[in-house]
Design goal:
Length: about 220
């Protein structure tokens, strides 16, 4: 099974190809919120490097978040467009799952954290079992201090993500390579079955809600 993966939940955008779970080509760039400029050239690059045409791909995997709003929209739209054009199934995987998978041999519980901006983080907790990882805290958004207070009650955990390094977190971004490696463990869906995991409203939505009825400017704006 050949899987093409698109990762765009954080400042690092990436694309990867795997055949039967083995990565055959990948590309990733950390350039801030410029995912739209990176993904299409990345797709072409990995296909050329692997000698695999898009027509040879069996499924499209995509990171559904949580993460950067713009990055997720661009990544999911790109993956969705490809899947529809090629008539392929899709696989959605959480960015927090990807971070946890990278630390699955740590031995202790794993807490994945991603910078949510606005002085908050996205987080989820995973237990390590003989059968693999089991999510024991569903993805949530909260202030770092609240998360750390929870962790003090059970301190034997491994923190991993793009924030909280001051508290011992292993710095990492969700990876397109990990995405295509784990994709086969998730159910495939149609493109309509893929939805971003935002956890909260975007700045644009909040700003729209604050505007007075009729769309006019507020006094003093």
């Amino acid at each position: 099974m050949i899987v093409l993966g698109i990762e765009s939940a954080t400042a690092r955008a990436g694309v990867a190809l795997a055949s039967d779970g083995v990565v055959v080509a990948s590309a990733q760039v950390t350039r801030g919120p410029r995912h739209a400029e990176i993904l299409v050239p990345g797709l072409k690059f990995v296909c050329e490097q692997a000698g695999i045409a898009l027509d040879d791909v069996d499924a499209i995997a995509v990171d559904v978040g949580p993460g950067l709003f713009t990055g997720l929209r661009v990544g999911i739209a790109t993956a969705n467009g490809l899947a529809q054009a090629l008539g392929l199934p899709m696989i959605g995987v959480s960015s927090l799952d990807l971070l946890a998978h990278a630390m699955r041999h740590a031995g202790n519980d794993i807490v994945s954290v991603i910078d949510a901006r606005r002085s908050e983080v996205y987080a989820a907790r995973y237990g390590v079992t003989a059968d693999g990882l089991k999510r024991v805290m569903e993805p949530t958004v909260l202030p770092p201090a609240d998360l750390l207070d929870q962790l003090r009650e059970t301190p034997d955990v491994v923190l991993v993500g793009d924030t909280l390094q001051a508290y011992g977190a292993v710095f990492a971004y969700p990876s397109a390579e990990t995405l295509v490696q784990v994709a086969s463990a998730y159910d495939t869906v149609t493109p309509r079955g893929i939805a971003p995991l935002y956890l909260r409203k975007s700045d644009a939505e909040l700003n729209a809600e604050r505007r007075p009825a009729g769309g006019g400017k507020e006094e003093g704006a």
